[in-house]
Design a protein that fits this description.
This protein is of the alpha/beta class. The chain has 10 helices and 7 strands. Helix 1 crosses helix 5, helix 6 runs parallel beside helix 8 and helix 9 runs antiparallel to helix 10. The radius of gyration is 18 Å and the shape is globular.
Length: 275
């Protein structure tokens, strides 16, 4: 991707820098374990998945579809996928015509993402690199879009916000889908049950609206939507309810659309910030 020019990472002075290094070491170790479990997996993406995320409607009851709705037309644009993992979203972004650069802190996951891109025919227009979201290895104003799914929950938000703003071009935007916990009752219940979502490292934690607002404070615009009241997460624990999943998500969406007071109990938030 010619407009993207790697540079040496910046080195901000901070007293707790070692904390971030420890966090990233844990992320790498966790990623290596996940990558080892997926080595024999079929990396082909079914056509129905490409169709689902090509042009989802704005009123979708699914948070991930709404993220792709906010993405808009990215044909020919330079898109940075922050925390690309094994490349599941990378190939969807490439399928929409973007020039994608996927970055992850774990080399094993980046290798898996590269293989997924090749298997699905995206050898061109997609690049990958190992790097930290706290010190992105790109020049200022390198990207039109930054895209991240469940990545801010694992980062220092002040540093991440600064880096996202730095690498975006003027008028560029970033989209994130993140776990949130605003309710004190839900946070307390979560601590009592010691529940940790699948794939989340020991450093990962749900955010609050206030934290996301601070993340977005340096941008000119911020908007989005809330999803998934707690009953949706509970229903997902029971495989017997899989067939009712579309109905459960539609009920969740209707409740959040028409009962504003319930939005404080939502557990997922999608935001779009504009530079």
């Amino acid at each position: 991707i010619s407009p993207i020019n790697p540079i040496s990472p910046i080195n901000p002075m901070m007293s707790d820098k070692e904390n971030f290094r420890e966090l990233e070491r844990a992320e790498r170790a966790h990623g290596e374990r996940r990558a080892s479990l997926k080595q024999g997996s079929d990396l082909h993406v079914p056509p129905r998945i490409f169709r689902r995320y090509q042009a989802p409607p704005a009123d979708t009851p699914f948070a991930i579809e709404y993220s792709y709705n906010l993405l808009g037309d990215v044909l020919g644009k330079d898109v940075l996928e922050l925390g690309c993992g094994d490349g599941e979203n990378t190939v969807l972004l490439a399928h929409r015509g973007a020039r994608v650069c996927g970055v992850d802190v774990c080399d094993a996951m980046v290798k898996l993402a590269r293989r997924r891109a090749q298997v699905n025919g995206f050898d061109k227009g997609v690049e990958f690199g190992v790097g930290s979201a706290h010190e992105l290895p790109f020049r200022d104003r390198s990207f039109d879009v930054v895209f991240g799914m469940a990545v801010l929950t694992r980062l220092d938000l002040e540093l991440a916000s600064r880096e996202v703003w730095r690498v975006l071009r003027p008028g560029g935007y970033a989209i994130f889908k993140e776990a949130v916990r605003n309710s004190r009752l839900i946070r307390m219940t979560r601590r009592l049950f010691r529940y940790r979502p699948s794939g989340q490292t020991p450093f990962g934690r749900p955010l609050t609206d206030q934290e996301l607002e601070r993340f977005a404070a340096g941008f000119s615009q911020c908007h989005g939507r809330k999803y998934q009241l707690p009953f949706v997460n509970v229903a997902r624990w029971f495989s017997a309810l899989d067939g009712a999943a579309p109905l459960i998500y539609r009920l969740d969406h209707a409740l959040l659309e028409h009962a504003e007071w319930l939005r404080g109990y939502a557990t997922v938030r999608v935001i779009k910030v504009v530079k």
